Amino acid sequence: MLYGEIPPTLGNCTSLETLGLAYCRLNGTIPPQLGNLRQLKLLTFQNNSLSGPIPDQLAQCTRIQVISLNDNMLEGEIPSFIGEFSALKTLNLANNCLKGEIPADIGNVRSLNHLYLFGNRLTGNIPYELNQLSQLQILDASSNNLSGPMNISPDHLISLEFLVISSNFLQGEIPKDFCSRNSSLRNLFLAGNQLTGTINGLLSCTSLQSLDLSNNSLTGSIPHAIDQLTELVNLALHNNSLTGPIPHQIGNLTNLEILSLYHNHLTDSIPVEIGKLKRLALLFLYENQMSGTIPAELTNCTSLQEVDFFGNHFSGTIPDQIGNLKNLIVLQLRENDLSGPIPPSLGYCNSLQQLALADNSLTGSLPDTFGFLTELNLITLYNNSLAGDLPRSLLGLKNLSIINLSHNKFSGTVEPLTGSDLLTVFDLTNNSFSGQIPLELFKSRNLTRIRLGHNQLTGPIPSQVGLLHQLVSLDLSDNDLTGEMPLSLSNCKGLTHLLLNGNRLSGYIPSWVFRDLVSLGELDLSSNNFSGDIPKEIGNCSALIKLSLYNNKLTGPIPVEIRKLTLLNVLNLQKNKLSGPVPPEIQQCKKLYELRLSENLLTGPIPSELSSLTELQVILDLSYNDLSGQIPDTLGNLLKLERLNLSFNQLQGALPDSLVRLTSLHRLNLSSNLLQGEIPLALSSFPQNSFSGNNLCGVPMGPCSDPPVSKGKHLSKAEVEGIIVAIVLVSAIVCVALMYIMARIWSNWREVSVSTSDCEESNSKRWVGNGDKIQASKYRKLGPTSTRVGSSEEKHSWGSDTSVLRMKNDAAC
Amino acid sequence: MASSSLLISLASCLLFLAVSPALASNSEGEALCAFKSRLSDPNNVLQSWDQSLVNPCTWFHITCDSQNRVIRLDLGNSNITGTLGPELGRLQHLQYLELYRNSFMGKIPEELGNLKNLVSMDLYENQLEGEIPKSLSKLKSLRFMRLNNNKLTGSIPRELVTLSNLKVLDFSNNDLCGTIPVDGPFSTFPPESFENNKRLNGPELLGLASYDFGC
Predict the structure, then answer these.
(1) Signal peptide span per the entry (chain B) (predicted)?
(2) What's the rounded Cα separation, in Å, for the pair A5 and A7?
C-alpha cells in the first residue's frame, strides 16, 4: 500500500488523464504542481489522510470529470473555481474538515451528476444556484452546519434522485409543491433539522421510495393523500410533533417496509387498512397517544419483524391471530391498556427474540405454547395481572437471558423459568410463587440480579448462590425462607444489594457478611429471627448507605465501629434487644437522614454528639428504651429534623430551650418520660399526646399551677381567666411580629444590617409610638392586621409591658 | 455505492432507536439518567444508576414509594459538579430533592415548579446562579426551601407568598436584591433567612418602594 506524501513531480506527467491514489495511506497536502495536469479527467484521492487546502492551481485542470477527495482531512473552503469545470460529473468532498459556504458557482457546472459534501463543517445557506444543476442525480450535504431555508427545489433539478441534507440546521417550512409532476426524486432525507410546518408539500414527489423527515419540528397531521406516494418503501416521520390519526390511506402504500412514526402526538386507532401492507417489516408507533384496539388485520402483515407500540393507550386484547406473524423478532407493547389473556397463538411466533408486554392489564396464565419460543432472550411481563402456574414447557427456552415477571399473580414453582443457563436478570418480585428456590437457577453463572421478593418461597437459601460471582443484587425479601445465611454467599463479593428481610432466617449475623461483602450499599436483614451481637466487622462495610436490622433478636451493644459507615443514610436497628448506650461515635455517620434505635434496651443518656447529625431529616427515633438524663440542649442543632420521638424512656428535667430551633419539626413525641417544667411556647402547637405522661405544663397541657420562677411572666396574673390569657398571647404574637417587621424596615431604611434583638427592642418601641401613621402610609396591605396591633398594644399596657418585649425576644432569638 | 450505504444507515438507525425502549427504564428512570448525564461524579455515587432496570427504585440515593414512584433524591454532600436540568421536573412524585453541598452550577430550572408533591427543596451550598424561578410558587406542598449559600441573583419572586405550607425558608448568603415579601408564610421567617444578601433591602414597603427596589 502506498504511503507518504504525493510527490510534486507528478505534476510533470502532463499527459496524465487518470490519477487514482485512493485507499492508501497518503498524508501531507495535495501538491499544487498537479495543476499542470491539464489533460486530467479523473482525480481520485479518497480514503487517505491528506490535509491542507484544495490547491488553487487545480483550477487549471479544466477537463476534469471526476474529483473524489472524500474521506481525508482536507481543510479550508470549497474553491469556487470548481464552477468553471464544465465537464465535471462527480464531485465528492465528503468527510473532510471543509468549512465556509458552498460556493454558488457550483451551480454553473451543468454537467454535474453527483455532488457529495456530507460530513464537513460547511455553514451558511444552501445556494439557490444549485437549482441550475439540471443533470444532478445525487446531492448529499448531510452532517454539516448548513442553515437557512430548504432552498433546493426538485422542480428545477429534474434529474435529482437522491437529496440528502439530514443533520444540519435547516429551518422553515417544506415548500409547497416541492416536486414537479414528473419528479424523479426517489430518496429524500431531511432528518435532524429544524424544519417546521406540515409535510403536505412533499405529496407531489410521487416517485419517492424513501422519505426521512424524522427529528424535526414538523406539525399538522399525516395527510390523507399520503397514498399519492405509491412507491414509498421507507417512511420515517418519528420525533416530530405530528398530530391526528394515521390516515386509512396508509393501507394503499403497499410497498411500505418501514413505517416509523414514534414520538409524535398521533391519536386515534390504527386503521384496519394497515393489514394491506404485506411487506411491512418495521412498525414503530411508540410514544404517541394512540388508542383503540390493535386491529386483527395487523396480523395480515406477515412480513413484520419488529412491532413497537410502547407508551400509547391501546386497549382491548392482543389479536388472537398474532401467531400469523411468523417473522416477528421484537414485540414491544409495554405501557398500554391492554387487557385479557395472552393469546396462545403468540407461541407460534417462533422467531421472537424480545417480548415485552409489561405495564398493561393482562390477565390469565402463560400459554403452554410459549415453549415454542425457543429464540426468546428477553421476556418482560411485569405490572400485569397474570396468574396461574407457569407451563412446564418454558423449560425449553434455552436462550432466555432477561426474565422479568414481577408484580403479577403467578403461582406455583419458578422452576419452569430455569431452563436456560444464560440468565443474567431474574426478577419475579411480588407474585405468589411457592416451593423452594430451584438449584437449576444457579446454572446461569452470569446472573447479576436475582429478585424473588414478596413471594411465598420456602426452604433455605441454597448454598449454590455462592457460584454466582457476577451477582450484584440478591433480593429474597418477604418470603418464608428458613435456615441460616449460607457461608458460600461470601463469594459474591460484588453484591451491592442484599435484601433478606421478612423471612424466618435464624442464627447469628455472620461476621463474613461485613468482612467479605464490602461493596454492599444496602443490607436489609430486618424481620427475621437473627440473634446474637451485631458483628464488630460492620465497620468494614463502609459503602453501606442503608442498613436495616430491625425486628430481630439481636443483643449486645451497638458496635462503636458503626462510626466508619460514613455514607450511611438510613440506620434502622429498632425492635431488637440491644443494650448499652447510644454510642456517641454515631456522630461520624454524618449523612444519616433517618435514625431509628427504638424498642431496644438502650441505657444511659442521649449523647449530645447526636447534634452533629445535621442531615437528620426523616426521623430520630429513640423511643421505648431506658434512656435517662436530660434531653441534650444541642438537639436544637438538628434544623432539618421533621420527626423526633423520644417517648417511653426515663428522660428527666426540663425541655431545653434549644428545641424551639427545630423549625422543621412537624411530629414530636416526648410522652411517657419524667420530664417536667414548662413547655416552650414555640412547641405549644404540638398536640397534647406529644407531651403526655410527664410533668409538663403550659400549652397544650394544663396551665402551670405554681407561678414558675424563671419563665412565663405573662402568666403571672393567675386570676385572669384562661381565655383572656390566650387572647393576650395571640395578640402579643401578632404585635411582636409586626413590631419586628417594622424594626427591620427601620433598620434597613437606615442602612443598618440585620439587627440584633436588642436593637429591635428599642426600634420597635419607637415605631409603636407613631404606629398609625406607618400603618396608613406604608403598610397599606396589612390594614386589617394593624387594628389588631392597636388593640393588643392596649392590652399589654393594661397588662405587663415588659412581657411583650420579653416574648418578642423569645420569638426572635 | 454511496446510495446503498445511505439506505443501510437509515435502516440501522431506525433499528437502533426502535429496540431501545424495550430495554429502557420508565420515564422517571430516564429523567434521572438525563440528569446524571449532566453531572461529573468523581466519587462514583451514581454508579448504581443503571437504566436497564425496570425502574430506578433499586438505585442508590433514590427512594421510591410502594408504587415504585421516586419520592426522594438524595445526593447531598456528594462532591458532584454539574447543572440541574428540566428533566428533574418530570419526577412528578418527588417529595425530597436533596442536592445540598455540591457544586451544582447554572440556573434553577423553572421546570422544578412542576414537582407538585415536593415537600423539601434543599439546594443549599452550591454554585447556583440566576434568579429564583417564579414557577416555584406552584409547589403547593413545599414545606422546606433551603437555597442558601449559592450565587442567586434578582429579587425574591412575590409569587412565593402563596406557598401556604412553607415552614422553613433560607435564602441567606446569596446575591439577591430588592425587598423581602411580608405576606403569607414570609411573615414568619426570621431575619437569618435573608442575611448576607448585600443588595437585599428589608421588608417591602408597599406604596413606598417597589419590590425590586435596588435591583
Answers:
(1) 1-24
(2) 6
